[in-house]
Amino acid sequence: MLPSVFATQLMAEAGSVAGRPGLLMAVAVTTAAASLWLLLPKGLEHKLTRPAGFILGAVALAAFALAGRRLGSIGEEAVFALVALVAVVSATATIVTRSPVYAAIWFAMTLAGVSGVLLILGAQFLGVATIVVYAGAILVMFLFVLMLAQPSGLASYDRVSSEPMLSAIAGAVLVGLLTISIGRLSAPVPADDVEAAATAESDAPADSVTAVVPDPLFENHVARLGGELFGRHLIAVEAAGVLLFVALVGAIAVVTRGEAAALAEGRPTR
Amino acid sequence: MTPVTHPMSVTSTSLVSASAGLRRRIWPAVAGCLTAMVALLLAVPSHAADTAAVPTAAVPTATAVPSMDLAPDGVLQNGLLHNGLLVGALLFALGLVGILTRRNMIVMFLSAELMLQGVSVSLVSWSRYHGDWGGQMLVIFVLTVAACEAAVALVFVLQAFSRTGRLDANAWQSLRESVLPRTIDQALPPLDGGVTHWPTLTPAGVEPAHDEEALLEREHV
Amino acid sequence: MIPSLETIAALVKIGLLVGGLMTAAAYLVLVERWMAAWVQDRKGPNRVGIPLTKIRLFGLGQPLADGLKIILKEDYTPSHVDRVLYNAAPLVILAASLAIFAAIPFGSVLPPLGIDGLPDPIPFLVAPGFSVGILWVFALSSIAVYGVLLGGWASNNKYGFLGGLRSSAQLVAYEIPLGLGLLGVVLAAGSLELDVVMTQQANTGIWYAFAQPLGFIVFLVAAFAEAARLPFDLPEAEQELVGGYHTEYSGIKLLLFLVAEFLHMVTAAFLIVILFLGGWHLWGVTGSGDEIGWGTALIRFGVFSGKVLAVILFFMLVRWSWPRFRFDQLMNLAWKVMLPLGIANLVIVAIVEEFRPQMTEAMGASAAGWVALLLPWAVFLLGWITAGVLTPSGTDNRPIRADILEDDGLFAAEHALLTGNGQVTTENELSNTANADSSSGSDA
Question: Min CA distance, A242 vs chain C (Å)?
Answer without folding.
Answer: 17
